[in-house]
Amino acid sequence: MNDIRKFLIPAIIFASTTVIFLTQALYSPDQMVLASSEVPELELEPIDQPAGLLIQVESGKTDCSIPARYPQEILQWCQPIEQYAQYYGLDPKLIAAVMLQESGGNPDAYSKSGAVGLMQVMPRDGMAAEFMCINGPCFSARPSMEELFDPYFNIDFGTGLLSGLISRYGSLREGLRAYGPMDRGYYYSDLVLEIYESYQD
Predict the structure, then answer these.
(1) What pTM did the predictor assign?
(2) Are residues 10 and 105 in the same domain?
(3) Residue 165: which of 81, 100, 114, 98 has the closest Cα?
(4) Which domain holds residue 10?
(5) Fewer beta carbons within 10 angstroms: which end of the chain, N or C?
(6) Could you tell me if 107 and 69 lie in one domain?
(7) Does the active-site annotation cover 45?
(8) Which tens digits make up the pLDDT trace of 26-61?
């Protein structure tokens, strides 16, 4: 037993010393200052949205790529529009045009067909739950109304949905047609494209 202690106690001391040394080396104040000095200081407000994107909105940001001729109801959402449009690879002016057509910038908009929020997304519940497809409810995989009434979540989900449809159908016009009401055909997409073009600088 004494032989084991002779080896065990020095081994424990050596392991403890190694752990302390590595901890100090990895988290030394010098390295922490160096890391923080490489990142520009921004005042950031995290977006609390269940989609899980690591996107933050800069507070105090005044520049906006959306033309100032848009109504203030749309311009007030400039920051999240730009952030999510960039994330999904779309023009922020396009998202502004869709939002103007869909809700006029009202985050509480609720259509007679059950679409919700700024981008008028069909949720899985409410009136939208009554829409049936071959395999069951058409929108069962969609977020809830409660989630979609959160304006940041709504812009996130709607922009991602539109981006996916444009990729799937191969063009902006076809993607917008699929995004809009099923019974409107190209009328909806052409209307949004007209808004998009008319508000270009």
Answers:
(1) 0.69
(2) no
(3) 98
(4) 2-37
(5) N
(6) yes
(7) no
(8) 333 333 222 222 323 323 333 334 343 444 444 444
